[in-house]
Amino acid sequence: MNIVNLTPHNINLDDANGVRTVIPSSGVARVASTPGALETVAGVPVPIAGRTTYGAVEGLPDPVEGTLYVVSAMVLGRPECQGRDDVVGPGTGPKDGAIRNEAGNVIAVTRLVRG
Questions:
Q1: pLDDT tens by residue, 70-96
Q2: Contact at 8 Å (CB) between 29 and 87?
Q3: Residues whose CB is less than 8 angstroms from the CB of residue 64 and which lie 6 or more positions away in sequence, other chains included
Q4: In the chain, which ranges are continuous DSSP H helix?
Q5: For residues 86 and 48, is the Cβ–Cβ distance under 8 A?
Q6: How far is CA 4 from CA 31, 74, 85, 99, in A?
Q7: pTM for the whole structure
Q8: In sequence order, which residues have a C-beta less than 8 Å from that of residue 40 and are 6 or more positions away?
């Protein structure tokens, strides 16, 4: 199985024996977005942006037999990814067994998840 990491950072995968495999970033799949208009609110020292509008997934290739694409949770949740068995995300949820450092940041995952 060929694993293609379409997140902007390396993915560390730890197996049940603690052996780590690093999947380097190979480009980025993203969700197109348009920020909302800026508004000022009395008492708030910086402008507040209105709701962001999200569009289509960009940078996700068509399925290729024998290839698994790792994407961010935001990409994984988009309609274009639903039903695609070749698209997964890093398992970073509270019950996914992700390995975190003392600051709580994910440093490795122990599973990949489907959307």
A1: 999 999 999 999 999 999 999 999 899
A2: no
A3: 2, 86
A4: 73-76
A5: no
A6: 18, 17, 14, 21
A7: 0.88
A8: 47, 48
Closest CA to 72 of 59, 96, 89: 89
CA–CA dist 90, 9 (Å, integer): 12
Which tokens in the block code for residue 20?
């780590």
Joined together, the tokens standing for residue 43 give 């008492």
Whole-angstrom Cα distance, residue 29 to residue 71? 7
Residue type, 81: C
Residue 8 has which token pair?
């902007």
Is there a contact between 68 and 84 (Cβ–Cβ < 8 Å)? no
